[in-house]
């Protein structure tokens, strides 16, 4: 088990990634990944394709999803691993979570139009694999393509975060809903990249306490969204709360992700991996 390489968080163009599920699988395999999960945002449409591609390449596949949650006024992402993508409650919950993305996207475009960036909605659509999942990332790619910024990080910083002209808040699922959908589908609930959230220590404590009480089991420790210093910081959080530890690159596409598939270091010592009883 310890010799296998795990990547349990990445995206395809079924949500906001650049590559189709089959190409993400091939890239993971080429980078030595042995156990792989595609975790598209609020969408299960790529899971069957991911499974077929992974099995054809000889990788172990784990059904996954990343659910958008609103908690204490911020967006938190909860990954579901080993979920049954045919579970009716999970499917319905994700459909409800996706509702409102088009309205939000049109409001983002209206805000950008006011600062001289016209046609952003239509431009963003050119980068969307699944129109139901149009997101800020698609706007960012359009704006880079048309020279408004040099990279997507710059677009977010100047246009798409709170207080900027293209920022529009969205109400996602609740934490309790997300965890219940994952557990109901036979999965394991994982807080994704906790180091990205701007909470106070007291708020983080409340988040972790509530998540654990709801049946959440794990947090991501080693992830492409964390710095090396944060690997140990969240390893300590996992130890303190008794969480299992997960890992994943959060790969979205070549040239857009800080870490490529399969390139993360192993989990820090002294943790129980989320896959400890999966039989791999």
Helix content: 25-40%
Largest sheet: 7 strands, mixed
Query: What percentage of the residues does DSSP assign to strands (E)?
Result: 5-15%
Mean pLDDT across all amino acids: 95
> What is the gyration radius calculated from CA atoms?
18 Å
Strand order of the largest sheet: 1-2-3-4-5-6-7
The secondary-structure class comes to: alpha/beta
How do the helices and strands follow one another from N- to C-terminus?
Answer: EHEHEEHHHHHHEHEHE
Measure the end-to-end span: 6 Å
Number of strands: 7
Q: Which runs of at least 5 residues are low in confidence (pLDDT < 50)?
A: none
Instruction: Count up the helices.
Output: 10
Shape: globular
Description of the molecule:
Helices cover 39% and strands 15% of the residues. By secondary structure, it is an alpha/beta fold. It has a seven-stranded mixed β-sheet. Helix 1 links the parallel strand 1 and strand 2 (35-38). It is globular. The model has no long low-confidence stretch (mean pLDDT 95).
